[in-house]
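Co-fold these.
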Amino acid sequence: MAALAVPLRRSIRSRAALPGFGFSLAFTLFYLSAIVLIPLAALIIRPWELGWGGFWAEIAQPRVLAALRLSFGAAAAAALINSVFGFIVAWVLVRYRFPGKKLVDALVDLPFALPTAVAGIALSALYAPNGWIGGPLANAGIKIAYTPYGVMVALVFIGLPFVVRTLQPVLADLHRDSEEAAATLGATRFQTFRRVILPMLAPTLLTGTAMAFARAVGEYGSVIFIAGNLPMVSEITPLLIIIKLQEYDYAGAAAIGVVMLTISFIFLLSLNALQAWASSRR
Amino acid sequence: MTNILRPRAATDDHPLVKIMLGATAIGFLVLFLFMPLLTVFGEALAQGWQMAWNALNEPDAIAAIKLTLLVAAIAVPANMTFGLAASWCIAKFDFRGKNLLITLIDVPFSVSPVVSGLVFVLIFGLQGWTGQWLRDHDIKIVFALPGIVLATIFVTFPFVARELIPLMVDQGRDEEEAAATLGAGGWSTFFRVTLPNIKWALLYGVLLCNARAMGEFGAVSVVSGHIRGLTNTMPLHVEVLYNDYQYVGAFAVASLLALLALVTLTLKSLLEWRFAGELSASGRH
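Predicted complex below.
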């Protein structure tokens, strides 16, 4: 019966094939190529007019290296902060009940929805020495705005929802059986968390943190207002690309762009591998 | 009261832990999300409603608002059409390289906004591939509307497609095939069968696409040239005013954008609460 059903089903399918395949695929490929693939090819080809030597000379300038160090360093620090506080936020939103929870939950997406320039000037005003937060900190001798710490603050803002939104569904699906089992076997709540809950969530937490990091590395709008943009100190890589463009150094700008693109793609690929690994573990 | 008296389940946190974690989470969100939002409106109204209104009701600000609306009005429908076409061929047909295509559609999300603008300068800029030819024929793309639209389309490229693809793959092709067997044509199958099934997910994707299109800063900043009253979108106008120390004006325009973000978040939350099942089977991201 089953053996008969399969070929029968297939013959029906082929007769009832839906229209529009050629048209929709052709349009998709054309649009994808015109908007994404050809422009990216233009970026990848451009710096090689300098040759290998010229490309490396471009990247190895102290100012470029300092910018890369800041972009990746601040993004890593911000991702780390978000992995801790994002975890706590996700935990509280999934496990606890409190009034206004839906509102707080909706607010978590604010960094996705708020234009980056708006976030940038708001954070800058807030953390400037005369701002609501920057003022008290300045009295205590701590400077945030116009230093690398300012860059980090902006990147924490941008990255938070990635960690929270990645963790939430997995945390909600987490069966409490193993927690109960651990408790029955005499584990304290903290032991259960460290030995049972954290290992189960680790791949997801890592994925969310990696996404926050990837977004933060290329971030521009929310950073440039609070960073102060001092060359060698608080100048991020995307800003350096813009400066090169303003000097009509297209090849130099493209060289930095290619480095950033390459690192993001390597990151994207490892992220996909990580997600595959995480879902195979669940 | 009953909560406190009831014995605590083994998988519940200690009340003290709850208070500590809860306070940490709320404190963090207030510090990093709520206060910046409050600052936008606070600074805009620092010198009263009238000053904020004056900052919006002046020619450059109005030109920026119009340009932002125009750019979104071109970019969003373009990406919506693409999203529908891409999800139709991916969900309803089998072909080789499908996974590669899905991966490529997501690529713009992992590209820095500045690089997204840079690629168009490299093609259409004065010293780009076509720069000389464009100049000879007096066609302006970079530092003009076409460049801004292209950069915006690039950064908002995946929004609609990535909402629709998983949903339509999940829904399969049985309903469309039934319609086709009963003699419905391609377009009427699409409008009568497919579209009603995906309308909320489509709206969700368009909503996010629009928010990003109107708020995009980095990519647009590279291609716009910052010509006041001509190629400044709202986020760029915010930057120009802020760098001119016109804080009330900058925050007044910024608060319009913040309102757009709040409306977007509200509608998005409503869609998630009301139509969770019809948005995506695989949950939200």
